[in-house]
């Protein structure tokens, strides 16, 4: 369900008339993505992605997201670039929604993460962090540590129905995480949602995966850089049975570290940052789970997968647990 | 929900290794389509569509569908062409499903049908019927008149909950349709599901829509040619408020007639063929409506839209009601 808004032919024609994109050749809804409506757009000039921003995205924040993508792209990160209309404006309106066209990024996201994906992912993350330097505007992390207690409070009613004792366990984890949360780590612009479906790969020589780019910056914000790495450790290094794959973690961290060396403070904070990353996705999933009517046309993601991750990180004494 | 089956990277790589399609550049699920899983596939050789055939399609019938597409394509209809692997085989297997790659067809299906779409549609339908000649194998219409009574019987229990008195009204319509159903009209291979989302258009000179091709032949069968036109009259000529647009109908029929002149018998039978077309889609929608659990991840289509169409056709005395 990635197309929430239908676009009529007339509306599309009027919209494209504002651009220099040549002749329209194809227009198809894309199945991937859960936050916005995405369309594959083909014109005589090439392939593009048209995004209609749906309710979850605050229109006032879109210029920041598009500006960040432009900044990252100009600083060497491969990512979609907003395409401006003839008047120089990239953020427009279509079918009653804010809308933007971005360049098409070749590549395929890995449906099954292999260890060979993790070094290129770590390198792409470090590249993203370095490329973000110099983009002056900041965007607070609205799903960062300060949001977690209020989120948990809003899950109190339905939470224990998901698993008995869940809320008490989360209360305990959360107070520990907040008490240990680091201060003063290197900050910058982070992706904050760098799951496998947001990273594209092409096949290099000998079948080795090469990262062709990063997409979907609509959770990006300004926060500790190492927290982004912690999110990736959560998103990329657990097997389908939720066992932690230390080979993947080591490859990811080492590749990151080679481009942007982690400080001693960042390395020491990695376990608590990972606990934070796990509880952040646990809480938003739990919120959706307890607030989505069972019959809704939305696939609810299991929050308990992140409880398993959280428990793993909670027993990690130091960065050694992550293969270093 | 047009992607029912996930394809892993490894499975896709092994599958594509059987073809000469060059390097894989992109792979994305397509949101359109409800019967099968469709993916947009881009390689260094161009754009393709990969289809995984899901439960509703009988694998034994796939060679007939793919053969028909090949036949129609070679006889001048613009439609997707099955692409064979290096061994000459087009119908293969992927992720536990029958699967085929077809060529990519440029164009956009009309989200809102304008009168200017209807003449090119009529011409495309006549072209399809003419191109089908010479394809010897027949496929019975499994959703034709003989299927309607059993379908209605399976809706008896839940039907009146959709609208009181619905089943009695349908019984009456159906017995009339079956009693008047014509015999001996010109037969051939019909598309049988030529709704707007199965017909692509490009913009010609002066903004005039030009039909760029026809897709989705998985309901195609061998039946009265004029019944296909009746289905199109149902699918293309009613406005969103379900008023019948006689301008659209006239344009469609005239364009069809110019390429494949309709016989007097076909013209006389048009009203009952239209009633048949309406009840066919009414019954399958009613069946889905009464047999789909309310919470299922499927958008149920309103059967009553077709009751309104059926009533319109039932008051049509002759082809004059369709603008001729």
TrEMBL record, chains A, B:
A GO molecular-function descriptor: homoserine kinase activity
Reactions catalysed: L-homoserine + ATP = O-phospho-L-homoserine + ADP + H(+)
A Pfam family assignment: APH
Key words of the record: Amino-acid biosynthesis, ATP-binding, Kinase, Nucleotide-binding, Threonine biosynthesis, Transferase
Lineage: Bacteria, Pseudomonadati, Pseudomonadota, Alphaproteobacteria, Acetobacterales
First-tier enzyme category under EC: transferase
Family: Belongs to the pseudomonas-type ThrB family.
Name listed for the protein in its UniProt record: Homoserine kinase
Domain Aminoglycoside phosphotransferase positions: 27-262
E.C. no: 2.7.1.39
Keyword Amino-acid biosynthesis recorded: yes
Classification via Gene3D superfamilies: 3.90.1200.10, Phosphorylase Kinase, domain 1 (3.30.200.20)
Pathway it works in: Amino-acid biosynthesis; L-threonine biosynthesis; L-threonine from L-aspartate: step 4/5
Alphabetical list of InterPro entries matching this protein: Aminoglycoside_PTrfase, Homoserine_kinase_II, Kinase-like_dom_sf, Pseudomonas-type_ThrB
Native species: Teichococcus globiformis
PANTHER family: AMINOGLYCOSIDE PHOSPHOTRANSFERASE DOMAIN-CONTAINING PROTEIN (PTHR21064:SF6), AMINOGLYCOSIDE PHOSPHOTRANSFERASE DOMAIN-CONTAINING PROTEIN-RELATED (PTHR21064)
SUPFAM superfamilies on file: Protein kinase-like (PK-like) (SSF56112)
């Amino acid at each position: 369900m990635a197309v929430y808004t239908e676009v009529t032919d007339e509306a599309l024609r009027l919209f494209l008339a504002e651009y220099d994109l040549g002749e329209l050749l194809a227009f198809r809804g894309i199945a991937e993505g859960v936050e916005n409506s995405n369309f594959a757009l083909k014109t005589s000039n090439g392939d593009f992605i048209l995004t209609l921003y749906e309710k979850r995205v605050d229109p006032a924040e879109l210029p920041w997201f598009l500006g960040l993508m432009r900044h990252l792209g100009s600083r060497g990160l491969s990512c979609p670039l907003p395409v401006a209309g003839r008047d120089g404006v990239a953020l427009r309106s279509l079918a009653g929604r804010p809308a933007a066209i971005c360049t098409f990024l070749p590549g395929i996201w890995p449906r099954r993460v292999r260890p060979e994906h993790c070094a290129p992912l770590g390198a792409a993350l470090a590249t993203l962090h370095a490329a973000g330097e110099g983009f002056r505007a900041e965007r607070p992390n609205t799903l960062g540590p300060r949001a977690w207690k209020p989120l948990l409070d809003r899950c109190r009613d339905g939470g224990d129905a998901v698993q008995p004792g869940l809320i008490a366990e989360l209360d305990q984890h959360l107070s520990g995480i907040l008490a240990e949360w680091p201060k003063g780590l290197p900050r910058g612009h982070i992706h904050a949602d760098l799951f496998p479906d947001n990273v594209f790969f092409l096949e290099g020589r000998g079948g080795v995966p090469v990262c062709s780019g990063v997409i979907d910056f609509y959770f990006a914000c300004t926060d500790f850089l190492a927290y982004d790495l912690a999110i990736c450790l959560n998103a990329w290094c657990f097997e389908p049975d939720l066992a932690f794959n230390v080979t993947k973690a080591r490859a990811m961290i080492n590749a990151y570290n080679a481009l942007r060396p982690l400080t001693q403070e960042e390395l020491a904070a990695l376990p608590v940052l990972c606990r934070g990353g796990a509880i952040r996705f646990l809480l938003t999933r739990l919120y959706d789970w307890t607030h989505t009517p069972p019959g809704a046309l939305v696939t609810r993601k299991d929050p308990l997968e992140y409880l398993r991750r959280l428990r793993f990180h909670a027993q990690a004494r130091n960065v050694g647990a992550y293969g270093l």
